[in-house]
Every structure is written in C-alpha cells, then in structure tokens.
Fold this sequence. Notes:
The chain has a single domain (2-181), classed as Pyruvate-ferredoxin Oxidoreductase, domain 3. Helices cover 42% and strands 20% of the residues. The protein has six helices and six strands. The chain has helices spanning 15-29, 76-82, 110-116, 123-135, 140-150, 156-181, and strands spanning 2-10, 33-40, 48-56, 70-73, 91-95, 106-108. α3 crosses α4 and α4 crosses α6.
Amino acid sequence: MLKQITITGFGGQGVVLAGRILGQAAALGDKRESTLVQSYGPESRGGACSAQVTIADGPIFFPYIENPDILVCMSQSGYDKHYPTLRNDGVLIIDQDLVKSPVDCFAVPSTRFAEELGNQMMANIVMVGFFTGITEAVSLEAARKTVAESVPKGTVEKNVKAFEKGWDFARATLKGRREKAAGRTGVAA
C-alpha cells in the first residue's frame, strides 16, 4: 500500500495539523510508514499552506509528492494550484462551501459543520474524519485516537465529536453513491 496525499488550504485552517494527525495515525496506530512535508507562505494566517503525507507499508524513499493519489482542498486557491497535479485516477476531497470544482469529487461542508459544533477552528478535524471515512487510508480507531491526543486539552470531546461528524458524513456519502449506482434513489420504505 502506498498513498500520497496532499492537503491544501490557507494558514489558520489547521492544514498542517490535519496532515500530522493522518501521518501519526498511520505510523503509531496502524504500524505503517509515513512522512510529512509541510509548506506555507510567510504569512501565518491567510497565506497558502499545504501538507504532503505519504503512507506506505514499506520504506518511503522520497517524501515529496508530485502527483498525489488523494487531494484534499480547503481553499479555492489551494484547489486551483494543486488540482492539476492530482493523478488521473486520484480522489478529490473538497470543503464544498469554500471550493468549487466542476469535476466529480467528494464534498463535505467541513467549515459549516465546525461552526454548527461551536468552533470554526475544528473544520480540519471534520475534514480528517471525512477523509478517513472516504479513503480508509488510516483506520477509524487510529485516526480517532490521534485526534484525541493531538488537540488542546479541554477540547478533546468537541474535537472527537467533529471527527465523528466528518466520518458519519463520509459513510452516508458512500452509501448514497452505492445506492445511486445500484439504481435506487429516494427514501427507502
């Protein structure tokens, strides 16, 4: 297994923390190899930011990602810059309220969900939950545990709830796609 993931957004969204959580969940929880390369502009908030995470069953010899298997976009500028690098068969995940894409992708209102949960700063954690549910690049158990260990004390319960909101939305999204592919639409009786 080799997954190359780019997460992009702007400073202040917690993009690097999201990358660190995924890499740590893979390494410590799932006992895989992982690397993290982060990039951000000179501005701490509002500037372009990205995290590149590679997860593999064996050694990773080069940590930089040119053509990710999975691209997670939390800002339009990040999407505009990084979408051309996504592999042809790659998975695109976006925050549907902040990114517009004409191509088929997985979309979650992560910022809106975080606001509904009481803190817009948890949008990255909602996105980690959604990513985990859609891609299964890291296990649910490892990701949930790493979220709990990575967020500030006193916010663990809210962040785990944000993670689970993203996870649940991912599972509902996949279920809806399976039902649509099978020709079932509408509400089941």
